[in-house]
Amino acid sequence: MKLPTRRFDALIVGAGGAGMRAALQLAAAGLTVAVLSKVFPTRSHTVAAQGGIGASLGNMSEDSWLWHMYDTVKGSDWLGDQDAIEYMCRMAPQVVYELEHMGMPFDRNPDGTIYQRPFGGHSMNFGEKSVRRACASADRTGHSMLHTLYQQNVRARTQFFVEWMALDLIRDADGDVLGVTALDMETGEVVALEGKATILATGGAGRIFAASTNAFINTGDGLGMAARAGIPLEDMEFWQFHPTGVAGAGVLITEGVRGEGGILLNCNGERFMERYAPNLKDLASRDVVSRSMDQEIKEGRGCGPHKDYVLLKLDHLGPDVIMKRLPSIREIAIKFANVDPIREPIPVVPTIHYMMGGVPTNIHGQVVVPEDGNPEVVVEGLYAVGECACVSVHGGNRLGTNSLLDLLVFGRSAGDFIVSRNLPSFAQKPLPPDAGDASLARLARLDGATSGERVADVAGDLRRTMQSHCGVFRNEALLAEGVAKVMELEARVARTSIGDKSRTFNTARVEALELDNLIECAKATVVSALARHESRGAQARSDYPERDDVHWLKHTLWYRDGNRLDYKPVHLTPLTVDSFPPKARTY
Amino acid sequence: MKFRIYRYDPEKDAKPRLQEYDVPLDPHDRMLLDALIRLKAVDDSLAFRRSCREGVCGSDAMNINGKNGLACITNLKTLKEPVELRPLPGLPVIRDLIVDMSQFFEQYHSVRPYLVNDTQPPARERLQSPADREELDGLYECILCACCSTACPSFWWNPDKFVGPAGLLQAYRFIADSRDQDLNARLDDLEDPYRLFRCHSIMNCVDVCPKNLNPTLAIEKIKDLMVKRTV
Questions:
Q1: A179 to chain B nearest CA, in Å?
Q2: Which of A134, A137, A385, B5 could be A401's S-S partner, Cβ–Cβ 3.0 to 4.6 Å?
Q3: DSSP 8-state class, residue A548
Q4: Interface of A with B in 479-538 (CB under 8 A)
Q5: Residue A286 phi/psi, 5° resolution?
């Protein structure tokens, strides 16, 4: 069946920080751009980021992009690509100033400059002591940034397709990407959107886990689309546990709380991070703090009746700091934990937060895959930016504030690169005759199935399986069992059915389509984690407790076809400076 | 827990109806959104928007026992049974609890909700004093959930002509920004019997705002500035 088609110079799938930053570059160059989003743009998950954007402005303490680069390489446990990291850290001040010029309501210092707070893993002079690098808008930095970017897109008259869900990539026989199929959620219509450049900016897939800080929409749609189109996913075993999710609720409490002076306590009232990270203490990197918390809980020093959480104490900061710098945290603690942090500590547990892996790209956002011995051959027409991409600036563990930075830097660079290709000057390749067949088959199955398992049940089992088999501490037996269970779940995903057959705003159908993406992300994660026989960054194997640079200083590539794994080298050579060679990682 | 929920699917229903549900809750279910998700696992045809589940994205605004609010931060313990859920009032219903928000966003866009400053920016940030920055507090935090505008009788009557509390709050957010240079044009645009002056200080907006913002105060400040520039 032939789908109705619409044609643009460029398509952007996702209207979070990365997608909207890219859109601004394209709009400024006069390209015709369509931005698709499952939700109204300001509802994208960037809105939930709290603490800040990392940039070495040096407004409040001496700083340099090279220190930022070193911290990021070390934070990544040396799995990050040092050329991409250098690019990001050098660009950071510029993209933050641009955002300020766009109207971002940053907090201010008495001299009128942007307020900056300390954050985990960020240091002065190569690890010496903590530095103020996180550019903050109270504890609503993501909200402020997302709204500012949307506002600028309103000004630029960007064309948004709001509440449209992209379904599949359209690739031709040469392997070039020519656009996407997409579902208009309000009407149920399926359309082929053609573009000479397609940018995936679909965010993470945190909803493969049961306890996650992520929004419901974070279902790894771009990753599912890429995997089904034969593109590998990189480093998917690396999932960040944020140290401070509200116990039981999963809602995020920013690391900015500890940046402002908050501390973690065990049941003895001990500030236990002093033992695990004598220098940066509570502001060590997230993987280190999360593991330390888990260790405390495992050894019986957790708090509460079940000794299953630790406490985040901030009352000593005083009501003024809390009300001024952390107002939303107070709201969240009152609403979701029944405590007012002005008086009482907040019960917290490490909670799934961020996907370091994603669709492999270079610093222009171009998607790159191995071909004929070359590990990085460009897939023509396809780009990825933001959390769905793996460029890789975060390696094995992302530093706080580097995610918003990643969105700005690589959204912008992909936009600039696409503009430089002068798209209007060449013709769109014709769509292959079978464009849309795969998407229509997925929809036809859902429409036709009159019996089968409920989507919510299968998705729930998937989340519980991932939570118990792919958590903070992993080992061979746990992961092998996890792989087996996830493969059984894959078969169940193919047999789901939905009761709702309406075409009008059918959210049951959307959730079923999302499950197709979740299962790809889950398989990639657990299969990659099982194969990596070392502990690095967020991947902690109790059976392989050490980092193994001889065998495992390399990126994983997972292919959907046969659950095949491949590997490619880490870029240890930066663009202009000397490499930071791997060394022991202490905080 | 007992619910009565507004149902309407244009493909099946000639007119809207209220459907009764009795949902067994889990002890961990804290917020109204938790109950709705539990309910949707049983009846997948119930349509509503949701995303962040922590009150910051603005997706799940609805009318809860007669008052607009966000399902994800409405504690179940505060609700009288049966909990009656309806779509936000005054906007066309697409399906069930999902309304067509086009008019709401058109009004938001109409205030030119972006910083206007055509001077060459410095190489670094534009400076802003902490006091000037504080002028934006209580304004920039808006999540565009539409609880306020759809609780406003003036917006119900003239959604095409009255900007509404959400749009006006954002209009003032840019008027109040020391970096913005478009004050006069912004005031000119609102000096109109409908766009601004349909606000009669009923203050429903203040009453329902889930972020505790005060659009009425912002509207008063815009009116003050208009008076000031005429004298």
A1: 26
A2: A134
A3: -
A4: 498-500, 502-508, 511
A5: -65, -40
